[in-house]
Design brief:
Blueprint (H helix, E strand, L loop, with lengths): L18 H8 L5 H12 L1 H5 L3 H7 L4 H10 L5 H20 L14 H22 L2 H12 L4 E4 L3 H15 L4 E4 L2 H9 L6 E5 L6 H12 L3 E6 L12 E4 L13 H20 L1 H16 L8
Parallel strand pairs: 1-2, 1-3, 3-4, 4-5
Helix pairs in contact: 2-5, 7-12, 8-12, 9-12, 10-11
Length: 305
């Protein structure tokens, strides 16, 4: 297979999208000094928007050159553009907070149960909203095309992502598409080795660094399958094995973002993908869903009187 197959939307950023989403998405792949700049931006975007490049560099114990490299890494031309984008983002965040949203998703030991619920539900809600705003529609459409015409679809995920992989599998299976989900690394590699042209392999990894998923996509791609990666970080290692890259925009909270808001964001993206695939064959999809629902209705039973 050719190694130059394009990834639709991989380097594309929407100007209207909050710069904070870009920063979070780029964070793991930045250099250590650039990561300090990124964390300062995420911690207090309003303050950074009012700060000079010299003051920000000093605060992050780095150089002005590093700050400029950080700006370019998130798709901005320079520091003035960063300040403008952060001012807009800070204004939006402040408006959100005035409407009753928590300032951040950090769960403190002293938080009340009410505070905890507010922070978790807000993080989940924002993960869905920001994923919807940031998804590249061209890439999503190309993925839908590939799945709708595929001979078979194999989906890989481990841990929390395995739950998402299985959810997509059962959704596709219920509208009559041949699909499989694989959580065991050995079985995933075995399945990938049997794929070929006209097959689709989908790897789901929040961090984009899960070796088991990367290896499965690599083998599937070498065998000629179309590969799709679903991750939170556009420049994560998994992107190198993906013909199509779909990104989520989950925020971290105190207790394992990889198993909380990220899963919600992945499920929202998977729902969009599934609905678009089903829409392509609307009549047959509805018929298949009705047929499968009828088949399991008898298993619901009735409540004893």
């Amino acid at each position: 297979m050719s190694e130059d197959r394009g990834v639709a939307g991989r380097e594309t950023y929407k100007p209207a999208l909050s710069v904070l989403i870009r920063v979070r998405g780029a964070l793991p792949n930045l250099r250590p000094a650039e990561q300090r700049v990124a964390r300062a931006v995420l911690a207090d975007p309003a303050a950074v928007s009012e700060s000079s490049i010299t003051n920000l560099a000093r605060h992050c114990q780095t150089s002005e050159t590093t700050v400029l490299r950080f700006c370019r890494a998130i798709g901005l031309a320079g520091y003035p553009e960063l300040r403008i984008a952060l001012a807009r983002a800070a204004q939006w965040e402040e408006t959100d907070h005035r409407a009753g949203a928590p300032l951040n998703g950090t769960i403190n030991q002293s938080d009340s149960l009410s505070d905890l619920v507010a922070k978790i539900t807000h993080a989940d809600s924002r993960a869905i909203d920001e994923t919807g705003a940031s998804v590249d529609l061209n890439t999503l459409a190309a993925t839908v095309d590939a799945i709708a015409t595929a001979r078979r679809v194999d989906i890989y995920g481990v841990g929390a992502s395995a739950l998402v992989a299985h959810d997509l599998h059962q959704k596709l299976h219920r509208i009559g598409l041949t699909s499989f989900s694989w959580a065991d690394p050995h079985l995933a590699l075995s399945s990938a080795a049997l794929l070929r042209v006209n097959d689709v392999a989908i790897g789901i990894s929040h961090t984009g660094t899960t070796i088991d998923i990367i290896d499965a996509l690599r083998v599937a791609r070498e065998c000629g399958a179309m590969t799709v990666a679903v991750t939170n970080f556009a420049k994560a290692p998994i992107a190198a094995q993906a013909d199509l890259l779909l990104t989520t925009a989950a925020r971290e909270t105190t207790f394992r973002a990889g198993a909380m808001s990220s899963r919600i964001a992945q499920l929202a993206l998977i729902d969009c993908l599934f609905a678009a695939v089903a829409q392509r064959s609307y009549g047959s999809a509805i018929s298949a869903l009705d047929t499968t629902q009828a088949a399991i209705r008898s298993r619901h039973g009735t409540r004893p009187s």
